[in-house]
Automatic annotation (TrEMBL):
Every Calcineurin-like phosphoesterase domain range: 63-184
Domain of life: Eukaryota
CDD domains linked to this entry: MPP_Shelphs
InterPro entries: Calcineurin-like_PHP, Metallo-depent_PP-like, MPP_Shelphs
Ranges of Pro residues composition bias in the record: 42-51
GO molecular function, one term: hydrolase activity
Stretches for region Disordered: 34-59
Source organism of this protein record: Turnera subulata
Protein name: Shewanella-like protein phosphatase 2
Amino acid sequence: MEDGESPLCKNLPNLVSSFVDTFVDFTVSGGLFSPSAQNHPDPTPPQPAAPKPLQTRYPAPPRLVAVGDLHGDLEKTKQSLRLAGVIDGQGQWAGGSSTVVQVGDVLDRGGEELKILYFLEKLKREASKAGGRLITMNGNHEVMNVEGDFRFVTKSGLEEFENWANWYSLGEKIKGLVSGEKRKDLFDGIPLKFRGVKDDCVNGIRARIAALRPDGPVARRFLGENVTVLVVGDSVFVHGGLLPEHVEYGLERINKEVRDWVNGFRGKHPPGHCKGRDAVVWLRKFSDEKKGRCDCSALEHVLATVPGARRMIMGHTIQQSGINGACENRAIRIDVGMSKGCINGLPEVLEIVGGSELRVLTSNPAYQGRHKGYSEANGKERAALLIPAHGVKQVEVKA
């Protein structure tokens, strides 16, 4: 299942075009349509201090795990992390010093998006205490939601955000009572109705806008420190793909601009490298599963411009056959459509040991007992397939 029109609230694309231009102006300016803005006509309200630079490059860890698109499916998220041996049966970090990279698209297509965001944040803290690391990235669906494009939201996804907004608003009221100060209304500046949108969608849409708009509470807390491009050892991570012009523009610069936009420091639309079919979160040039359709020459050019890079690891495009490699494993595609909102694929994750050996860990029972064993942190054996050193062949798998 590729990105197409959502079956929910079919007028949402119109909502995006008509609403974003008027609403996001409010977000960035501090509230053009709010009573507080009318009482304080200063057009340049004070801005919070800019956050610290994001880390774009990391040295190679002893063990690196890459996890593909999650799309609102908490159980598949946990299955993939258990498969990698980085959480135990209780959902606690068990990965020791492992580094885990999740390549984006936590949002949309499922109804447990917030649960996954909270779960990953918890694991980040636990991993750090254990000497490990969990890095989360922006996908095209994170960018879409911050911009107000809800084409792929599900009914249960709207309900989850509506419930969150009710509790968040209550918490803000309690804080105001305790401090004696008036707290900002979560829904300040958001319309009560949207033309052409079903009544039963409105409250969830309002909650989702409030949460995920630039500098919204959920955007700031869970997406505000995401990277958009990443280099770990000799592996380049990106949701869609990189072109030479992206590298020339600057990976650190891309990360800064997207992070600043999510946190409300930039204009109403995402940076240019996140828009259009050649954007870093939308590109599919290296992801076509059909043999010979990956542009190996362009890929080689890109990797040559990133010092020490040997491969590009991407999500975004569902691989029906599971995690696989192309261009002599210079392109590794890890989106297996595991979410029930996609193709309900069997969880698979990529593992890189010692900076060189690539293996796929899979839950596919077809591989059980046919490949060498791998011991998880809890001692449970999983089957393993090595990715071949040469040749355009499916990345082999560990189950």
